[in-house]
Queue: 2 jobs
Job 1
Amino acid sequence: MKPSAPIIHDLLTIPRTLPSGPVNLIGISRALMLKKLLEIGTPEKQVKMRAAQLWQWIYQKGERNFSQMTNLSKNYRELLSENFILEVPKVISKKCSKDGTRKYLLQLAGGHEVEAVYIPEEGRGTLCVSSQVGCTLTCSFCHTGTQKLVRNLTSGEIVGQVLIARDDLGEWENLSGTNNETRSLSNVVLMGMGEPLYNFENVRDALKIVMDPEGICLSRKRITLSTSGVVPEISRTADEIGCLLAVSFHGTTDEIRDKLVPINKKWNIETLIKALKDYPRLSNSERITFEYVMIKDVNDSELDAFRLVKLIAGIPAKINLIPFNEWPGSPYKRSEWPKIKKFADIIHRAGYASPVRTPRGEDIMAACGQLKSETERQRKSKKEITMEAGI
Ligand code: SAH
Ligand code: SF4
């Protein structure tokens, strides 16, 4: 069969703008919403109130049908639906793990797919959100990094994942009167597919809505953005977003980190550590999380643990040890438990919290680093994709 052109386009470009067509009000900033409402003829005197009402409907009541927004006049509701849409990604499937983890496979405009994962914990629940379809970085231990198809998510597609999880958890009805502490979806982590700092503006706009008291209304301390180490964007994260930061560290020498996290060849350990030391707002109550995936015989020696402690000296930090999660064809094995324990002890004795992250949702391939679009999972090699595209 003759290959279709869009596949070639997908392979080569990362769209940075919203898809054309009617404007989706979900995910746009307040300022842009005011502008759009003025453009359709909303009187200037009313525009702030109309935007506040829309935000309440969309982000606090979960309403995605203009006709149900009963505190707006019928004519105005019609005007809105003639000019705008309220769209979130389509849920293609939901898998539930025996440990309660839920994985959503979502389809975006254009047919691309991403995954989002909800992890229930004692008294709280965390949604792991994706920021890109695939990832341009190719960390050798990460399933997402093997996916060739890459595009940035729009801010609406990022916030949309939170709305979808709230739908599924039936949380809209129970929302009024609850605070961050008692919600099923109490925390958001940007640790799904993609490198969030390679999609900075859209991630920032989405997280601002998640943190806005009239939006999703989660405190900024309940939001963590994880980066593989895009150094130039690190201080912007503090200045323009203000959420907590996690860094995928994984290697204590440039030689090891170059192999595991190849972005290290661009910004090496020394440059990264300097950027983290300069990270504004750092204090003991707002520490940087160092993520460290434990891979058998690669980065799990006692020497590695001592080197890690030395490298991060002076940075208020917590070290999150992640036992390596295997995926089909993965080139590594998980470190053995005694080694993980020894590593954790050394870090703990140096005065840092060193929790070991319990793998969640492994039976549905929802654990850290196992995410990959379902359709991509079936594709085997770049050669095959290239052949399909007829390049
Ligand atoms: N791109 C960002 C965020 C997504 S990855 C980043 O790299 O930080 C989220 C976390 O999962 C990162 O800490 C990543 O290193 C970790 N991870 C990736 N693959 C993994 C695997 N196979 N097992 C365990 N953790 C993994
Ligand atoms: Fe991308 Fe993060 Fe996976 Fe590396 S670990 S390939 S940066 S998603």
Job 2
Amino acid sequence: MAGCFITFEGGEGAGKSTQIERLKRRLGELAQPALVTREPGGSPHAEEIRAFILGGRAKHLGPFAEALLFAAARIDHLDKTIVPALKRGTHVLCDRFADSTRAYQGSAGNIDKELIDQLERVTLRGTRPDLTFILDLPAEVGLARAGERRAGRGEGADRFEGEEASFHHSLRQAFLSIARSEPKRCVVINADQEPDEVEAAIWAALRARLPQITRSRLSEDAVRPLDVA
Ligand code: Z5A
């Protein structure tokens, strides 16, 4: 594909949205087109499924049925948003993707790994992230951040934020285990530091892993006519 597919993963309040916006801004300064999207959601039908799951209406169906709903949303998101953007050369910065199903429904929800692998294969149909940032921090720190933000907005906890502390601890281990098993794709970032420091760590990793997108397209455009001449 012409664009790069970059996903951000981690527990609640890890700072994914904050860092995705910062990365989009940096890429914009280099004239690298980037689309910000999220899961569950990212396309009109997937957003409907998001509201259903995060509203807690699928909880009684159990983790496997929830995994199927996340997969259904992901299929629409891939077909309507992600794949078309990558094909036209736009980089996709996605807040959560298939690793969240592995961590939340697979590890923390106790679904057999082979079943999750099979579901992932039929859902993704070959479209996998080029790079995944796993924003790592103690569960308590992330939950406190998410709680503060919710209180500021007058909102209550959603389906997953309301889970017990042990669930959130096992999530952290699940994401770290994914990173260990796929070191070429995944980079673990210490998210328990100032936003500027997290941003710098992400940029350094991006320069090392996908250097082509950290170069300015403006200068490429500027030299092209000379090359032709
Ligand atoms: N889920 C699933 O179970 N299976 C799946 O397959 C998928 C998802 C795809 C989506 O929730 C839920 O769906 C999620 C997993 C599940 N569980 N929950 N809950 P969501 O999209 O509503 O929420 P989230 O993905 O967990 O994101 P978040 O809680 O909004 O956090 P974030 O995007 O990582 O963080 P943030 O919004 O950038 O920052 C949170 C607050 O911390 C905010 O006030 C910031 O200003 C502050 N912040 C950010 N960075 C820092 C630093 N470095 N220091 C201090 N404060 C900071």
